[in-house]
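Researcher: Last one for today. Full complex below.
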Amino acid sequence: MPTPTKDRILDVTAELFRRYGYTGTGLKQIVAEANAPFGSLYHHFPGGKQELGAEVIRRSGQMYFELIATIVLAAPDVLTGIADAFTGAAVVLRETDYADACPIATVALEVASTSEPLREATAQVFESWIRGLTEAFVGAGVERDAARRLAISIIEILEGAFLLCRAAKSTEAMEVAGETATAAVRAALAGTARD
Amino acid sequence: MPTPTKDRILDVTAELFRRYGYTGTGLKQIVAEANAPFGSLYHHFPGGKQELGAEVIRRSGQMYFELIATIVLAAPDVLTGIADAFTGAAVVLRETDYADACPIATVALEVASTSEPLREATAQVFESWIRGLTEAFVGAGVERDAARRLAISIIEILEGAFLLCRAAKSTEAMEVAGETATAAVRAALAGTARD
DNA sequence: GTCTATAGAAGGATAGAC
DNA sequence: GTCTATCCTTCTATAGAC
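Model: Here's the assembly. Have a good evening.
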């Protein structure tokens, strides 16, 4: 049986990072919400906040990818799957008062110019998302290079929408993003069907 | 003659916010880099960090809008202007080691769930960008509703690209973003030409 | 309007008992 | 592995001399 304390710390930190960012989240805040003693944090993460941060970034990135993959794979086709993902993102934003958006975007921007290990962790997460989406589009018949560019575009649109929605406390930008994203997917699939 | 100390504080803060974010920038760091005494900060900004932050957000937002407007207006047409803006963004990213991206994105995500006054300031900046771009597309013949959706999409793509580029320390995502953005503009203009 | 000193809280990190 | 106490630094903010 794996130690639950470590998992609680990871879960709580992921939640706090998503809402308040890396520098905005204190270690004391983390152990308080995780009902864990302060010493346990440094026992499980001897590297301190950086080590904990890196593990949370990777973990959150993988969990979010699995969430999106589940939505996309549940749909009858890729186009519908992408549309569902954007619709779902809008619903979650409204339900959480615009707190639950991308789990690593805030942290990624914060650490980009301040911590190489953490920047690399965020870069690996985004690259894994790009690769996963690329495979989905390749599976739908899109040529590999076009599929990667499409995957990058979809993620860019989603991330940009998260930013505008959180700032405006409105889902208008996510609805627009869904239209733009599906249009891009449709165009790529049409380009393939022409062969 | 306006007081130069206040302007120096504003300029330095804008630069630090862009790179390190809101919580990642300390007031002591600001006065040190601005060569200003600590007391001057609270003399010019009695509301402390929040008041300074709000003013910097609005100021940075307006300056960045003017920068983009200059690039777009210098081009022969809107399509070329948008393409130039994305190309220019990629150049700046490379030249500044991926530090100079969107001046308010990091701050916007940090404050979205922590400070209503600052969130509103970022929301107003994004809305002003959307309106400015909307007018440009309306001027190019795009129907107003479609123009607003196009403007939102362009900003989303740019912001998503900034995020991916800073994380990866690569301009691949910005190049892809430029293609996607110009394709969207081209499609909107084509829709108009059909009338 | 400029500048110094300092308060008071919160930050990350460590030591050592259990 | 758990938990407490504590160190040192940094943070925002204020007071008050000049």
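The longest helix of chain B spans residues 48-74. Chain B touches chain A through 46 residues (CB under 8 Å).
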